[in-house]
Amino acid sequence: MVLTVIESKQFRDMVRVATHRMGKNKEYVNNLNVFPVPDGDTGTNMNLTMESGARAVSECQSTSVGELVEALAKGMLMGARGNSGVITSQLFRGMYKATVGKEALNAQELADAFSNGVATAYKAVMKPVEGTILTVARVAAEDGKNAANDSDDVEVVMKAIVEGAKRALKTTPDLLPVLKEVGVVDSGGQGLLFIYEGFLEGLLGENFSDVYTPDIDEMDQMMSATHEQSQSKLSTKDIKNGYCTEIMVDLTKDVPGKKPFNLEEFRKHLSTLGDSLLAVSDDTIAKVHVHTEHPGEVFTYGQQFGELGKIKIDNMRIQHETIVDEAAKEEEKVDFAVIAVCSGNGVRQLFESGGVNRIISGGQTMNPSTQDIIDTIKKSGASKAIILPNNGNIIMAAKQAAEVCDIPVGIVQTKTISQGLTAMLVFNPDASVEENVEAMNEEASMVVSGEVTRAIRDTNINNVEIHKDDFMGIIDGNIEIDKPDLIEATCAMIEKMLDEDSEIVTIIYGRDSNKKQAEQVQAKLEEDHDDLEFEIHDGGQPVYSFLVSVE
């Protein structure tokens, strides 16, 4: 039977199944990250972007497909995270513009919508690169257009779009050498294929459960967000369970008197020990967050099922005063908002001491959405604003936010924390947005940025042989060093960063390193470079053991 039009019911099903399919496969997409660093978040970003669009569709009461596509596009625009999420949102923005006023879509209109989406997405990217999500979208749309010339069946057109996306995805390693070098297809293109496959499945009447359980990484983000949001609404005296307690249990390890693990029973017992409970498991690891008065009881209980790994206890009564003070500060209005995206209390303090008056928590693995950035600008009450993304994967979302704000907003194109901190050295609150952006971009370009983190897999990039769990030195976005020892890797990276004009080396240590290790790096380098000046700061940042700048 030929299906000649897509009506509102079919379109809602397409969005629902596509969102579910993207969610179920986000970790697979994350793992396609070219660099073997623990920050692959393409799948997470595309999933969150789709979820934002799907939520807008579910809230829209219209029976017009054109209006549903508009709701999807606007929801995705506001929820877009990372470059992949922003580009995906632009694809659907183009589709919306091609479907205005349409009660239903026929085969030709469906193909035209995908083609217009591609045109819009290519325009949104300053320097389009083939072998990426753009290639997959373009070839898919071309195949859909060809199918619509021969058939009036929307299912035939949607199948052609999916097949085109599959074929294009296979070619991405041939178009982008770094993909071929590592042996993967483009992660954004793979994510888009999952979305398009979901559209087809929804159109064909395939149904999936909408029940979703967060994974271990998502739980970390949920913990952080829920913890701070709930505390800001309390008074200190109202905190019943004062210790924020987190444990990780390795369920594969044998321990004396080990008990069989059942997640439901595990959660049930932990709920008797406190509140704000979150507990997830992937069959090998169980992770727990709970607010309790007796952290030791949580540890003792967890030890019955395996070996305790990471544990953490925070006194929330002490933390609360700080959070309330920060929340109060956020309510203060400013004339010129200077907004930085960063993670880690120490890094946050460095930006604030440099003149930043608004912080968006985020960075690698936790890219803020367009809406997050817009909300921060609006809450500031400012008449003008500057944004320091401090991550290449956040710049597009920042630009998208700037476009829809009704005040002048400038984007300083900082791709690292070091560039952001350096840019703030020349910020002038009495100058215009344009003057500041020009001066800050120029200043940021003068610093050499280095990052040290662990490799999550074996690979070879730019003739650097990388081994899982080794420490990598990344200089201005390129992996240059791989060594099993943290201190050696950091020193070797900094040596490569130095030139005859280098004067100051700034080392910011993160959650997985400490001041003593930073001082060891300094001592080793001073043996050969007694003319260098060193600064060491506690950044508290995740992912990167050290953030380094050389000026």
Describe the structure.
The chain is of the alpha+beta class. 50% of the residues lie in helices and 18% in strands. The strands form 5 sheets. The chain has a 6-stranded mixed beta sheet. A 4-stranded antiparallel beta sheet has the order 4-5-3-6, with helices on both faces. Strands 8-7-9-10 form a 4-stranded parallel beta sheet, with helices on both faces. Helix 6 runs antiparallel to helix 7 (133-150). The N and C termini lie far apart (68 Å).
Structural descriptors:
single chain, 551 residues, alpha+beta, six-stranded mixed sheet, 18 strands
Percent of residues in helices comes to 40-55%
Structural class per helix/strand content?
alpha+beta
Beta strand count: 18
Integer average pLDDT? 86
Strand order of the largest sheet: 15-14-11-18-16-17
Helix tally?
A: 21
How far do the termini sit from each other? 68 Å
* Fraction of residues in β-strands: 15-25%
Radius of gyration over all CA atoms, rounded:
25 Å
Low-pLDDT runs of 5+ residues are 208-236
Q: Largest sheet at a glance?
A: 6 strands, mixed
Shape: globular
Structure, briefly:
The protein is an alpha+beta fold. Helices cover 50% and strands 18% of the residues.
Furnish the topology, listing elements before pairings.
Blueprint: E1 5-6, H1 8-24, H2 26-30, H3 42-59, H4 65-79, H5 82-98, E2 105-106, H6 107-124, H7 133-150, H8 154-175, H9 177-182, H10 187-204, H11 216-232, E3 243-250, H12 263-270, E4 274-281, E5 285-292, H13 295-302, E6 307-315, H14 316-331, E7 336-342, H15 345-353, E8 358-361, H16 370-380, E9 384-388, H17 395-404, E10 409-411, H18 417-423, H19 433-444, E11 448-454, E12 459-461, E13 464-466, E14 471-475, E15 478-483, H20 486-497, E16 504-509, H21 515-526, E17 533-538, E18 546-550
